[in-house]
Amino acid sequence: MKPVIVFGSINMDLVTRTPRLPLAGETLQGYEFFTAAGGKGANQAVAAARLGISTQMVGRVGNDNFGHQLRGGLQAAGVHIDNVLLDDSASSGVAVIAVDDVGENNIIIVAGANGRVNQEDVERLTTLLPNAAALLLQLEVPLSAVLAATQAAQKAGVPVILDPAPARGDIPPELYLLVDIITPNEVEATQLVGFPVDGQETATRAAAELRQRGIGTVIIKLGAQGVFCATGSETFFVPAFSVQAVDTVAAGDAFNGGLATALAEGLPLRQAILWGAAAGALSATKVGAQPSLPDRETFRRFLKERDVEIG
């Protein structure tokens, strides 16, 4: 089976729990603090690896305590880390996260070594691309590196799955032309298209706009509502799995890991989106980014309990 390659960010998450998220200028009393491995790239790599697919991570961490912990955590999850560089010139990336009692969060990211990802890393990626099942990308590393990575994937004939997060409105037009599948959530889709995306009707409009920019498949994650998908031949909606959410911080990354794993295993797109939705729902039931990502047995049991065929 062909491996999945993830090119992107690796962070240490510094997480606080608080009854509600603070208002601007407000100081709140939290009741819990912990650190957890995170970063959208690393989360997606761990999500795929735990679901049983061979996964390569390409990125950077600082040559510091966090960096060594992050590399060790990736390796323990089954991710190949030969191309995770220890950078002596920057600290490891960190994300400062507040999570409230209903599982909502806000996040401040300090890029650190992630901000130094460049053409050097793209060259290391290029050696891995032949025979890869897919390349997963996000926007927590420099946009120039993301664009170069998509160009390398196109030359190698490898499908590109882009999670356009954190949300930004300055994605160059040429990047859209190189992306096979894009997976924004409501906030990210809104930022991309310039109008509110908050349900199936507006998701349909947003997907049409993004497809006009050159993307073959648009998958818009609508949170508890479900997932909307538009391709060149069909549009469809996959309802969300109902769970008791406690922390949604890595749910989108779990979705992409599940999606990529299913596609790498040869499943059709609708089934792959179902896998993504299930992985995201499971992730939301546990605290932390990578600690919340399900293994294959947990995933299989979750779907079996809901009478859903795993493939």
Explain this structure:
The chain has one domain: Ribokinase (UDP-N-acetylmuramoyl-L-alanine:D-glutamate ligase). The longest helix is centred in the last third of the chain and has 15 residues, at 269-283. The strands form two sheets. The protein has a nine-stranded mixed beta sheet with strand order 5-4-1-8-9-10-11-12-13, with helices on both faces. It is globular, with a radius of gyration of 18 Å. With 311 residues, it is of the alpha/beta class. It has helices at residues 40-50, 65-76, 119-126, 143-156, 173-178, 186-193, 200-212, 251-264, 269-283, 296-305, and strands spanning 4-7, 11-17, 32-38, 55-62, 80-87, 93-99, 105-110, 134-137, 160-162, 181-182, 217-221, 226-230, 235-239.
Number of strands: 13
**Could you state the CATH homologous superfamily?**
Ribokinase
- The number of helical elements comes to 10
Q: Which geometry do the CA atoms define?
A: globular
Radius of gyration using CA atoms only: 18 Å
How much strand?
Answer: 15-25%
- Bin the helical content: 25-40%
**How would you state the average pLDDT, rounded?**
94
Task: Work out the count of structural domains.
Answer: 1
- Main-sheet strand order equals 5-4-1-8-9-10-11-12-13
Oligomer: single chain
Sheet/helix structural class: alpha/beta
